[in-house]
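[Q] Does anyone have a clean structure-token version of this?
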Amino acid sequence: MNYKDLIKQLDKNLPDHIGVIMDGNGRWAKKQGAGRLWGHKNGVESVRALVEASVEIGLKYLTIYAFSTENWTRPDDEVKGLLKLILDSLINEIDSMSKQNIVVRFLGTDIGLSKEYQSKINKECQKTYNNNGLNFNIAFNYGGRLELIEGIRSIATKIQNNTLTINQINEETISQELYTANMPDPDLIIRTSGEKRLSNFLIWQSAYAEFYFTDTLWPDFRKSEFIEAILDYQKRQRRYGGTK
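[A] Here you go.
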């Protein structure tokens, strides 16, 4: 079904925040008889499609898993190609996204990144910080466990400095020390390519998220299936451990 017709089926119960684990670029490229980077490059088109659809339906937060802390173990050529592709795509798309009132943020650690690379990313993202539309988060050099470790270290430092007591530590205190501080937790996590795991993505924030798994490889995942995932979410009852 055409995604325009699918959008008409959406009700007001939109998720506030959707996280997407973009998986299957390498397998898609292999089916085309091409290298893995070809799959990553074609995956950019799916990112663009989801951002456009998110703006159209009025989604507040979209977080994509672009590069994990574990991805550094991949072959050097693939890592270098991915880093270049992510930066080039940001530079090429930032003005268009800013015109659409989108706020672009990178979520992750600085470990392993050059100062020059970090500076370029920050410079581009700052162009959007006065916008108030879709919050488009790019989980880059991101690992959920490392995020928690860095948050715990920050809390420990505050305790050492007597700006926080042990008894003040609660869920909100921890959430405010994460990369997603001041953002709502994801309501829906989508993963493509048939795999069914979180892979260290938003592990604290996804405690009560709904999950949508599809066999579709990421470069083939476009607007229609994105809306279908949201429609599937709207059929579910969210009980948060209670009853309805």
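[Q] Thanks! Anything notable?
[A] The mean pLDDT is 96.
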